[in-house]
Specification:
Layout lengths: L3 H5 L2 E5 L6 H14 L3 E4 L4 H7 L6 E6 L8 H14 L3 E5 L2 H5 L3 H16 L4 E5 L7 H14 L3 E3 L11 H10 L5 E5 L5 H9 L2 E6 L2 H6 L3
Parallel strand pairs: 1-2, 1-8, 2-3, 3-4, 4-5, 5-6, 6-7, 7-8
Helix pairs in contact: 4-6, 6-7, 7-8
Length: about 220
């Protein structure tokens, strides 16, 4: 059985639902602090509020870029990333351009993500690349792992949590085997129990996104 700290430090507590109010964001940040998770992942417009709520906390602030479809322009993604960093985000989860990937335009996908990574790494900010595996073939997933290896992504991530599927075992295994050893794997979508958290950890994940933080960690108290 893993320790409380081992699981807590794998959690990006997710606060991305479009209907969340400021009061709910504040409550989510307080929960993240109380449970000592790795980060709280908020919508871009909530980064300033989350940073304020967590100013005296070890919990970091994450946000999403090009969310949820990855189809904004490269310039927009870079601008969004820079604003998020200015507002206090220190980890960014960026969605690849799904349509361009499925069109076979790997050069576009690579340049698009590389521009964001360059801007973020210049400020020592971590970038997680979201694949949205439910829409991709295995060949497309492997191609994206190769792209991430070449452009120096920090993490590869299974999904936004808002597609038609989440973190599947076969995808986690594929991503861990094709991403470079120094690139970490994040599971997102469907990690709602301690048992599932332990399973994704065993498959090589070092982070997972979830809303069921309390339910998972209460089991380890």
């Amino acid at each position: 059985m893993p320790t409380y700290e081992e699981i807590a430090k794998m959690i990006d507590h997710s606060l991305l639902k479009p209907t969340l109010t400021d009061t709910e964001i504040e409550a989510g940040c307080r929960l993240a602090h109380a449970y000592k998770v790795a980060t709280v992942c908020v919508r871009p417009a909530d980064v300033i509020l989350a940073k304020k709520m967590l100013k005296d906390s070890p919990v970091l602030v994450t946000t999403v870029i090009g969310f949820p479809h990855g189809t904004t322009t490269t310039r927009t993604k870079v601008t969004e990333a820079k604003e998020a960093m200015d507002n206090g985000a220190v980890e960014l989860d960026v969605v690849l351009n799904i349509g361009k990937l499925k069109s076979g335009d790997h050069a576009y996908v690579k340049d698009d993500l590389a521009a964001v990574i360059k801007a973020c790494h210049a400020r020592k900010v971590i970038v997680k690349v979201i694949f949205e595996n439910c829409y991709l073939s295995d060949e497309e997933k492997i191609a994206t792992c190769t792209i991430c290896n070449e452009i120096g992504a920090d993490f590869v991530k299974t999904s936004t949590g808002y597609g038609t599927g989440g973190a599947e075992d076969k995808d986690l295994t594929l991503m861990r085997s094709h991403a470079a050893p120094h690139i970490q794997v994040k599971a997102a979508g469907g990690v709602r129990t301690l048992e599932r958290a332990i399973e994704v950890k065993a498959l090589g994940c070092t982070r997972f996104g979830c809303t069921a933080t309390a339910a998972i960690l209460d089991r380890l108290k």
